[in-house]
Design a protein that fits this description.
The complex is a heterotrimer of chains A (102), B (113) and C (215). Chain A is mostly beta strands and 102 residues long. Chain A has a single domain, classed as SH3 type barrels (Roll). Chain A is 9% helix and 33% strand. With 113 residues, chain B is an all-alpha fold. Chain B is globular, with a radius of gyration of 17 Å. Classes of the chains: A mainly beta (102), B mainly alpha (113), C alpha/beta (215). Chains in contact: A-B, A-C, B-C. The interface between B and C is large, with 55 and 54 residues. Strand 4 of chain A pairs parallel with strand 3 of chain C.
Chain lengths: 102, 113, 215
Amino acid sequence: MTARFRIGDRVVVRTDTPAGHVRTPSYLKGKRGVVLRDMGDWPNPEKLAYGKPGWPRKTNYWVQFAMDEVWSGNGAYAAGDTVVAEIYEHWLEPDTTPETAS
Amino acid sequence: MATSHPTRKPHDMGGDPAGPVDRDEHEPTLVERRIDAMMQLLRQKPRAFWVTDENRRTIESLTPETYRDSSYYQKWCLAMRSLLVEKEVLTEDEIEARLAEVKARHRKGGGRP
Amino acid sequence: MSHEHHDDHDHDHPHGHGPFQPDIKEPTEDWEFLEIALRELMIEKEILTAREIQEKIEEWDGKCPEVGARIVAKAWTDPGFKARLLADGNAGVGELGLSVPGLKLVVLENTETLHHMIVCTLCSCYPRPILGLPPLWYKSREYRSRAVREPRSVLAEFGTDIPDSAEVRVVDSTADCRFLVLPRRPEGTDGWSEDRLATLVSRDSMIGTAVARAP
């Protein structure tokens, strides 16, 4: 199965609020980032948490977010700082918003 | 301010306001090391009673008050109990019975090593 | 069993930090009684043995930051090893007889323009097979909440100052990777042996809340 995303792709995190176990932190939901690495295919933790094998496996992507994107200046960080997290493919959509000039 | 989600669970705390980090080293006690060891033994082969995400899910299901007020290994101990019952390795009845006996024993001042 | 822990702290600790304390305190809290009850029941039913529990505790005594420090010191002195370590952390530490079973070890290099800081906001994911048990602060609400939003003030609390010209990259360990920071090699250490270099590598420098010690 071909991977959904490639390194350098701009993505946005879905804003779903499922009742069960997820590994997508709320503070990143709806945020736009860039794929830094493909961290490989893993059983889905949302299924593992309930005694299921979690296959077919999901691709996990290392996604980088600018601090300002996440916190809109309300934090303690420098302009170039970022936060990176491993996000499963089914939580990511392509970011189709126009890139703003930096 | 972090976006507020109606179903945000207590463990999902990235970005929440909080005070200074307490850097005192608080080495784990023997009880805590035993809990850590038992949880590993129960999760790993040959037993493999559960996987890490089941442990996480169990801890995430604690009430916000219990989550906030319990220490790290206290939460693991509660999760161990819950999972052992869920997986039908032990029953609630026998745990309750033994718990009462252990408490009574320690009130009398004669603990087993 | 009690033993001295190797002191690798970076901060002044007025009351010092003592040796591992055996439990001399009688259990008083419900969860302490619960631990006893569960352990007794499992041993009686031959689900676990006391010996296995003890052996597992002792196995983890052997996993400590000194293990990680050796990896860092080798990476500092052996460019080929460092390249292999950064490309594949599991294979890299495997060359030293170490393993991180079932998880992907990712080693992240700090440079003059990039400083990594690791956190697990959702629980306490940590490269335990390499660094041992995580410190209590790593698992605290304060660190888990603030690291991703206030990295520079958290770093300041640790006495760590990273210039604004460098990117602080906070790594939230949310899945099956476990991250080990490769701190920058301090100045003034030319020609040092691996053993000597390892003494500069603190646990906190491999988490990213500190830099390696100056000589």
